[in-house]
Design goal:
By secondary structure, the chain is an alpha/beta fold. It contains 20 helices and 27 strands.
């Protein structure tokens, strides 16, 4: 069957390379083994090396601009010399506000190569949120693409101080960065110009999504950039012949660092559309002749819901790599689109361990081979579903989960030779401290809290369950919102959904509520019947809210906090609200009178 899938995907009966599991891990280890031995070698040097070997081969491609390796190295060197001319060294930060395009990578690679830190700013932010991201970076300069001028103007009144603004593109504001760069030398930097920047220094600030408040700025060192690039190049078996389609935002750790650096590390090419588009996706995959694409789970769901395209199997894709592809759509996705291999992984921007599903087990996010247990020390500990706090035994230490038990995943903080991995934290020391769990399995040890609930099966595979705080208790049972949401979005007529728990006066725990975006095919009878077949009784949503749209981040992480605050009060939401009758299972509208009955305890669920 796999051979047939490969043949459909390539239009050829020639088998594609598929390395063994052992060779995959060994290649990743090999590509990252020399990082510590070469402390002054940065990722810009990786690009420079390929530029010397294959200057004309395409490195970064897009509809508007393409950089060969020679052109990319030259552009990196210009940004580096621009930074040197302004005295940007260690301790100086430049905010980058630019849509996804090849120049984005050249910019941060160049500035960071001479010691500066580049803060990668979400181009969708405006006003106070945008100002917050610039302020926490303590930025001295902002590089501003012409398309982002309006957004920055909304933030200016809220800034603690206004950095020097450098404009790229016609119609910009501030100093002309295009002209400044054009006047600079493109040759490799001398050792004097490079200075003594090491892999220990901070290269980037990458922000959390801000799903539960304002974004936090995570520190990312040169070491981690090299490690991410090398690990993923090895695990993806990347080569100079690969061309990766990267439609994730470049201000994100996966879209902006992991995906492009994995291909650049191997001398391959990266295709960078400005944004993800269901309509253009397969046209781009075929048109750019891509062999790999980077996904997140929600992107895969959108593609599955789209009408069939004549190009969706007429491609040379050998691999899809990403995170968040749930087990309920894994095989349907691979089968419909003729994807020969899927490499699912788990990682977090600020995290100190990663998981990789090299074997391609549907629904799993990965496992840790015994030979790498020292390098990725991870565990799962029991947490209280209501408070989200770790459960401790009589000895005051945390309690590890057995196979099949759900708990929070944690990673030991330390160094590889001392049974741990570093945690680089955030710009805010208080936020950094909140992520550290101490006295876990021994007095004095320290582990990073991921905030992710996971389960490990008998074969050692980790499975993502939910975020801590998203899982809630109802009728004495733990309800995982991710599981409920997957079932809801498989229902006819449901375009999008967000599931969460809401407080009901007089009831223990939180009742399930789902905010839905629906089309004309939706009806509550079908909805109720569908969920009854998929979910246990305690997990069935009690309340439903029909919305025109749902707010999410650019990586499709849902923003639930406002939905939770508004609950099921018809005077607050302004959207149609419904409740499920516990006797009949039918859904009925929530009027002000019904709401009062629920709040007064006259209506029981």
């Amino acid at each position: 069957m796999e051979a047939a899938v490969i043949q459909r995907a390539t239009g050829s009966s020639a088998p594609q390379r598929r390395p063994s599991t052992a060779k995959t891990w060994l290649k990743a280890i090999e590509l990252t083994s020399k990082i510590e031995a070469e402390p002054h070698r940065l990722f810009a040097d990786v690009v420079e090396d390929w530029a010397q070997r294959q200057p004309m081969r395409p490195a970064l491609l897009s509809d508007g601009l393409t950089f060969s390796y020679g052109e990319l190295a030259a552009r990196i060197n210009r940004y580096a010399r621009w930074a040197l001319g302004l005295g940007i060294r260690a301790g100086c930060t430049v905010c980058l506000l630019m849509p996804s395009r090849p120049d984005y990578l050249a910019c941060w690679l160049g500035i960071s190569s001479v010691g500066g830190t580049v803060a990668l700013i979400n181009t969708r932010l405006v006003g106070r949120s945008l100002a917050h991201c610039i302020d926490v970076a303590c930025a001295d300069h902002v590089i501003l693409a012409a398309e982002c001028v309006d957004a920055l103007e909304t933030a200016l009144p809220h800034l603690d101080r206004v950095p020097q603004i450098w404009s790229l593109g016609a119609g910009g504001v501030g100093a002309d960065l295009d002209a400044a760069l054009a006047a600079l030398d493109t040759s490799p930097l001398s050792s004097t110009e490079r200075g003594h920047v090491t892999i220990d220094q901070r290269a980037l600030l990458i922000y959390t999504s801000g799903t539960t408040g304002l974004p936090k700025a995570a520190n990312v060192s040169h070491r981690r950039i090299l490690s991410w690039g090398g690990w993923f190049a090895g695990l993806a078996d990347a080569s100079v012949d690969d061309r990766l389609y990267d439609c994730l935002p470049l201000h994100h750790s996966v879209g902006g660092v992991v995906a492009p650096c994995s291909m650049l590390h191997a001398g391959g090419s990266v295709v960078i559309p400005e944004k993800f588009s269901v309509t253009n996706f397969w046209d781009d995959i075929a048109g750019f002749d891509c062999t790999v694409f980077q996904y997140i789970g929600e992107l895969c769901r959108y593609l599955l819901k789209a009408p069939a395209s004549g190009l969706e199997t007429a491609h040379r894709l050998r691999l899809a790599v990403g995170n968040g592809l749930r087990g309920d759509i894994w095989e349907a996705f691979a089968g419909r689109f003729a994807i020969p291999r899927i490499l699912e992984f788990y990682a977090a921007t600020e995290g100190n361990f990663s998981l990789f599903n090299v074997e391609g087990k549907p629904g799993a996010i990965g496992r840790i081979p015994p030979l790498l247990a020292h390098r990725f020390p991870a565990a799962i500990v029991k947490v209280d579903a209501d408070s989200g706090s770790p459960v401790r035994g009589a000895d005051g230490l945390c309690i590890g989960c057995a196979h099949g038990e759900v708990g929070e995943a944690i990673g030991r903080i330390g160094t590889a030779d001392r049974g741990g991995s570093p945690f680089e934290g955030y710009t805010d020391p208080a936020e950094t401290a909140k992520k550290i769990l101490r006295d876990v399995f021994a007095e004095g040890d320290a582990w990073l809290r991921t905030g992710d609930l996971m389960m490990r099966d008998e074969q050692g595979y980790f499975h993502f369950v939910d975020r801590v705080g998203d899982t809630f208790r109802w009728k004495g049972e733990n309800v995982a919102t991710g599981e409920v949401n997957d079932a809801i979005r498989d229902c006819r007529g449901v375009l999008d959904a967000s599931t969460y728990g809401v407080a009901v006066p007089g009831a223990d725990g939180r009742a399930g509520m789902a905010a839905l975006v629906v089309d004309q095919d939706f009806d509550f009878w079908t909805f109720a019947e569908h969920l009854a077949r998929r979910l246990p009784v305690y997990a069935l949503p009690i309340f439903v809210r029909l919305c025109r749209s749902l707010e999410a981040t650019e990586t499709f992480k849902q923003k639930k906090q406002q939905l939770i605050r508004e609950g099921f009060d018809p005077l607050v939401t302004g959207d149609p609200l419904f409740f499920r009758d516990p006797a009949s299972g039918d859904f009925h509208p929530i009027s002000c009178a019904v709401y009062a009955s629920i709040v007064d305890g006259r209506f029981r669920f």
